[in-house]
Write the structure tokens for this entry.
Amino acid sequence: MSEGRKKGVLQRFGYANTLTMVRIICIPVFLVVLLVDWPRYFPSRTLLYQIRPWAAALVFTVLAATDGVDGYIARTRGEISTFGKFVDPLADKLLVTAALLALIEVDILPAWVALIIIAREFVISGLRMIASVEGIVIAASWYGKIKTLLQVIAIILFIIMGSAWFEGIDAAAQQWYVAVAWSFMGAALVMTIMSMIDYFRNASEVIVGPWTDSS
């Protein structure tokens, strides 16, 4: 494919959608950095083991930050599309879900936390699909934006909790750090539930009717 044709395809697909898809494609990179025992293939294993949680936190931070970037590009370049409205929140859900499951895998986060957050995403996704069938658009509220921000901060803090730096600090500092990490996670869980309640409130017509007559 020629350079001009590649550029044409990129412009038609949209820079914002391209960045969103890159975010989804790079989620396995984050999982490899955090979970796979890749440092053993290098001579300086000790150093790599020490920096692995920090590298994973950096990759996760970059991927999470692209959410705001692709949204800004879509608004400023007029690239807001139906595909983008679908795939952008999907990318966020996949990234957060992958991070939560990875933290469970490395025994840093209890499973019930991930269950609450992932269950909320299933419920809201189902609700929005039903609403779309009825021709109703449920706009995202500020609850969801704050929820996502708190989740990202909490996940980063928990990833770093698995680092050698955390193990090397004194017990008092560890307790303080854990308290801060759980404060952010607790706030994220509260906002997760609040955003779900807000969705149900805004979708009351979908839940109790009137519904489209399909007869």
About this structure: The chain has ten helices and no strands. The CA atoms of residues 205 and 211 lie 8 Å apart. The two ends are 50 Å apart (CA to CA). The chain has a mean pLDDT of 84.
